[in-house]
């Protein structure tokens, strides 16, 4: 029996939406669109569980935008996203969906953009607002965003907002909404804090769960290289030279590393640029535009800077530094294999990082095959092929006659023509040497097999119950300065590019606070934190000593009545046994002054 194919025309969307969808080349709805659109058109709350790339933006945008009233110049639809990049993408999609609707204004609110630009857009009467939780909350507190007429609220990638520490801001915004409104929440996973939000703020939501299947799963080939025989920089250059890719993104753990790797790649002829938290929003957008239009081929980014990044050209992801948690790896490699294209993901694994690799394989339920660095023969073959291609293209030109006369001066009786041609090849090869020295001898046991043989019971002995060793630091800001735990977390996470999950117990006192951070932090980073300002006051961070595990579940000092980031997640109840956590020295986070100069 032939199955009837559902089209967008069958879902009850208005004609102006259908025309826009047709212009965008959409033919039939994805599973999540087919499931969500009827519920949202019927006025029901929707709880959607689906991975990135499943089409969830259209799943909530199409039915809710169809119900916007153009004559009302007040915000009627609010979309909260974890990153400014995702917010911009959602707003751009809404603009395309509403191309045939008149009188609809869409504004994007995110940090890094001047307030006056956003205020002008809001005063023009925006019916649709898309933004990040922090900036939306700022506008609410300034009374520059009026949500009294709001009809629809969407939480996009709610688990990412939780992971990035925005859940308090989300709940504060949700509590400020009119009693009568429709809610759509989308999340790849459903941790308990997200469940609590659904119970508190949603009205009998219709649950839509789309399982990723092999047919719809991204086509991503994954492999790993154990760091041995070559430095990571040299190996990276070899992989990039031999790999065939359209565009690539390289993930590093620190902002400094993104700059160093970018400098290395540029010196070797690659069109590369860094993407990190120190960049202005304007420069970030210019960099991404260059990647999209083909004037840039490689991005070197941190996890935080790359969140929400969606560029179809990316066909290769290189994890120069292995992520400290498996979920970040999944988000990283999700930048490739999009729009039906095949993707490739490469992971560099240091000798002491086997546990992290196992965590990734356990989460993805797939073994990651080990590969070797392209050897001398592969590199020479690639370079010679490219060299021959250049010569062949040059032979197709018709202006070579001008140079033939020069050969007469070279070709003399006492000079062999092949010797002259060989000398020319030496001159033309430049930095890309066509003949390479032998590769170093490599200990083949340096990978996971040697790790198992030499320490067969290490996994059982160490186990997940081993907590991260932490140091206790004092900072000279406290409750009387108006500081909250979230301010300290934000400053440390952003300035040090440290994932907030690796920040331990924080206690607030009247004139100072204490914070637990992983052992092995470079002195340069501590010095940087000393100058970092919280509530317009320098932290003046100083080391008190090793944090004691016992008694960490004791007194909890917090500002305000909010929970979440300001309570359990910053107390001794915080569990570091879900994943392997290592010191900064183990993870490769080393002082810049001791880093190898490229």
UniProtKB/TrEMBL annotation:
<dbReference type="Pfam" id="PF25399">
    <property type="entry name" value="DeaD_dimer"/>
</dbReference>
<dbReference type="InterPro" id="IPR001650">
    <property type="entry name" value="Helicase_C-like"/>
</dbReference>
<keyword id="KW-0694">RNA-binding</keyword>
<dbReference type="InterPro" id="IPR000629">
    <property type="entry name" value="RNA-helicase_DEAD-box_CS"/>
</dbReference>
<dbReference type="InterPro" id="IPR057325">
    <property type="entry name" value="DeaD_dimer"/>
</dbReference>
<protein>
    <recommendedName>
        <fullName>ATP-dependent RNA helicase DeaD</fullName>
        <ecNumber>3.6.4.13</ecNumber>
    </recommendedName>
</protein>
<keyword id="KW-0963">Cytoplasm</keyword>
<dbReference type="GO" id="GO:0003724">
    <property type="term" value="F:RNA helicase activity"/>
</dbReference>
<dbReference type="GO" id="GO:0033592">
    <property type="term" value="F:RNA strand annealing activity"/>
</dbReference>
<dbReference type="InterPro" id="IPR044742">
    <property type="entry name" value="DEAD/DEAH_RhlB"/>
</dbReference>
<dbReference type="InterPro" id="IPR034415">
    <property type="entry name" value="CsdA_RRM"/>
</dbReference>
<feature type="short sequence motif" description="Q motif">
    <location>
        <begin position="6"/>
        <end position="34"/>
    </location>
</feature>
<dbReference type="GO" id="GO:0005829">
    <property type="term" value="C:cytosol"/>
</dbReference>
<dbReference type="GO" id="GO:0005524">
    <property type="term" value="F:ATP binding"/>
</dbReference>
<dbReference type="GO" id="GO:0016887">
    <property type="term" value="F:ATP hydrolysis activity"/>
</dbReference>
<feature type="compositionally biased region" description="Basic and acidic residues">
    <location>
        <begin position="565"/>
        <end position="576"/>
    </location>
</feature>
<feature type="region of interest" description="Disordered">
    <location>
        <begin position="545"/>
        <end position="598"/>
    </location>
</feature>
<feature type="domain" description="DEAD-box RNA helicase Q">
    <location>
        <begin position="6"/>
        <end position="34"/>
    </location>
</feature>
<dbReference type="InterPro" id="IPR005580">
    <property type="entry name" value="DbpA/CsdA_RNA-bd_dom"/>
</dbReference>
<dbReference type="InterPro" id="IPR028618">
    <property type="entry name" value="DEAD_helicase_DeaD"/>
</dbReference>
<feature type="region of interest" description="Disordered">
    <location>
        <begin position="437"/>
        <end position="463"/>
    </location>
</feature>
<feature type="domain" description="Helicase C-terminal">
    <location>
        <begin position="235"/>
        <end position="379"/>
    </location>
</feature>
<keyword id="KW-0547">Nucleotide-binding</keyword>
<keyword id="KW-0378">Hydrolase</keyword>
<keyword id="KW-0346">Stress response</keyword>
<feature type="compositionally biased region" description="Basic and acidic residues">
    <location>
        <begin position="441"/>
        <end position="463"/>
    </location>
</feature>
<feature type="compositionally biased region" description="Basic and acidic residues">
    <location>
        <begin position="547"/>
        <end position="558"/>
    </location>
</feature>
<dbReference type="GO" id="GO:0070417">
    <property type="term" value="P:cellular response to cold"/>
</dbReference>
<dbReference type="InterPro" id="IPR027417">
    <property type="entry name" value="P-loop_NTPase"/>
</dbReference>
<dbReference type="GO" id="GO:0005840">
    <property type="term" value="C:ribosome"/>
</dbReference>
<dbReference type="InterPro" id="IPR050547">
    <property type="entry name" value="DEAD_box_RNA_helicases"/>
</dbReference>
<comment type="function">
    <text>DEAD-box RNA helicase involved in various cellular processes at low temperature, including ribosome biogenesis, mRNA degradation and translation initiation.</text>
</comment>
<dbReference type="InterPro" id="IPR011545">
    <property type="entry name" value="DEAD/DEAH_box_helicase_dom"/>
</dbReference>
<keyword id="KW-0067">ATP-binding</keyword>
<dbReference type="InterPro" id="IPR014014">
    <property type="entry name" value="RNA_helicase_DEAD_Q_motif"/>
</dbReference>
<dbReference type="InterPro" id="IPR012677">
    <property type="entry name" value="Nucleotide-bd_a/b_plait_sf"/>
</dbReference>
<comment type="similarity">
    <text>Belongs to the DEAD box helicase family. DeaD/CsdA subfamily.</text>
</comment>
<dbReference type="InterPro" id="IPR014001">
    <property type="entry name" value="Helicase_ATP-bd"/>
</dbReference>
<dbReference type="Pfam" id="PF03880">
    <property type="entry name" value="DbpA"/>
</dbReference>
<feature type="domain" description="Helicase ATP-binding">
    <location>
        <begin position="37"/>
        <end position="208"/>
    </location>
</feature>
<keyword id="KW-0347">Helicase</keyword>
<dbReference type="GO" id="GO:0006401">
    <property type="term" value="P:RNA catabolic process"/>
</dbReference>
């Amino acid at each position: 029996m032939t199955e009837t194919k559902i089209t967008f025309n069958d879902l009850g969307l208005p004609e102006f939406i259908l025309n826009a969808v047709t212009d965008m080349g959409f033919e039939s709805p994805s599973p999540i669109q087919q499931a969500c659109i009827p519920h949202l058109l019927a006025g029901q709350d929707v709880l959607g569980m689906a991975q990135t790339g499943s089409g969830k933006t259209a799943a909530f945008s199409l039915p809710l935008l169809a119900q916007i009233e153009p004559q009302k110049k007040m915000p009627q639809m609010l979309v909260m996203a974890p990153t400014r990049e995702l917010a911009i993408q959602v707003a751009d999609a809404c603009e395309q969906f509403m191309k045939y609707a008149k009188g609809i204004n869409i504004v994007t609110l995110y940090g890094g953009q001047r307030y006056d630009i956003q205020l002008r857009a809001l005063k023009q009467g925006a019916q649709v607002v898309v933004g990040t939780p922090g900036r939306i909350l700022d506008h609410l507190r300034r009374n520059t965003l009026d949500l009294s007429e709001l009809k629809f609220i969407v939480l996009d990638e709610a688990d990412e907002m939780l992971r990035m520490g925005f859940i308090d801001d989300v709940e504060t915004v949700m509590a400020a909404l009119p009693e009568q409104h429709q809610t759509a929440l989308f999340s790849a996973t459903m941790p308990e804090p997200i469940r609590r939000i659904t119970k508190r703020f949603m009205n009998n939501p219709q649950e839509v769960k789309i399982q990723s299947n092999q047919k719809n799963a991204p086509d991503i080939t994954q492999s790993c290289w154990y760091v041995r025989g070559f430095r990571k920089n040299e190996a990276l250059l070899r992989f990039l030279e031999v790999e065939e890719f359209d565009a690539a993104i390289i993930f590093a753990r620190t902002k400094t590393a993104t700059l160093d790797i970018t400098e290395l790649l540029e010196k070797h002829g690659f069109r590369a640029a860094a993407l990190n938290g120190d960049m202005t929003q304007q420069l970030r957008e210019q960099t991404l535009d260059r990647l999209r239009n083909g004037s840039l081929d490689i991005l070197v980014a941190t996890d935080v800077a790359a969140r929400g990044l969606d560029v179809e050209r990316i066909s290769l992801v290189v994890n120069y530094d292995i992520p400290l948690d498996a979920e970040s790896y999944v988000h990283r490699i999700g930048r490739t294999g999009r729009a039906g294209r095949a993707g490739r993901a490469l992971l560099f694994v240091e000798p002491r990082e086997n546990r992290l690799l196992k965590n990734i394989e356990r989460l993805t339920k797939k073994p990651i095959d080990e590969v070797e660095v392209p050897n001398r023969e592969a590199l020479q073959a690639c370079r010679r092929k490219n060299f021959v291609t250049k010569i062949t293209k040059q032979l197709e030109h018709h202006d070579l006659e001008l140079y033939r006369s020069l050969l007469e001066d070279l070709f003399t009786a006492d000079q062999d023509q092949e010797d002259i041609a060989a000398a020319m090849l030496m001159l033309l090869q430049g930095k890309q040497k066509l003949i390479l020295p032998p590769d170093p001898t490599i200990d083949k046991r340096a990978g996971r097999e040697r790790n198992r043989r030499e320490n067969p019971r290490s996994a059982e002995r160490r186990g997940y119950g081993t907590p991260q060793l932490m140091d206790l630091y004092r900072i000279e800001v406290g409750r009387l300065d108006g500081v909250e735990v979230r301010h300290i977390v934000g400053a440390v996470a952003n300035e040090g590019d440290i994932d907030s999950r690796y920040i331990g117990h924080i206690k607030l006192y009247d004139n100072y606070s204490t914070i637990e951070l992983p052992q092995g932090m470079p002195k340069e980073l501590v010095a940087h934190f000393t100058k970092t300002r919280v509530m317009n006051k320098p932290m003046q961070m100083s080391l008190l000593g090793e944090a004691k595990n016992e008694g960490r579940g004791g007194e909890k000092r917090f500002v305000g009545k909010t929970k979440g980031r300001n309570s359990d997640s910053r107390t001794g109840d915080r569990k570091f046994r879900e994943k392997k956590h290592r010191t900064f020295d183990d993870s490769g986070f080393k002082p810049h002054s001791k880093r190898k100069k490229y």
